[in-house]
Amino acid sequence: MSESICPLTELSVGDRAIIQLFEDQHSPDGHKLMALGITPGTEIEVTRRAPFADPIVIRLRGFKLALRKADLRGILVKPVHENLPIKNNQ
Questions:
Q1: Which 8-state DSSP code applies to residue 29?
Q2: What's the domain count of the chain?
Q3: From start to end of the chain, where are the E strands?
Q4: What predicted TM-score, i.e. pTM, was given to this entire model?
């Protein structure tokens, strides 16, 4: 995976990234995701994918969320390639 920005839905299990852009943040669904802690600057890690890749489980801010790919569309991330523990951004 390159260092460029990519959709969160393209990350593989174990990949870590920092949320860069949230295209739907002003929609009702966007407000819901932001209330769950999915905001620009937050570090996330993909911890699991269900069969057929939906839903996707991500870890952020010290907890895990299972979300449908449709809910995560429009979230762009920058992959992180360091072998450091995930930050607990609060």
A1: H
A2: 1
A3: 6-7, 16-22, 43-49, 56-60, 63-67, 75-80
A4: 0.79
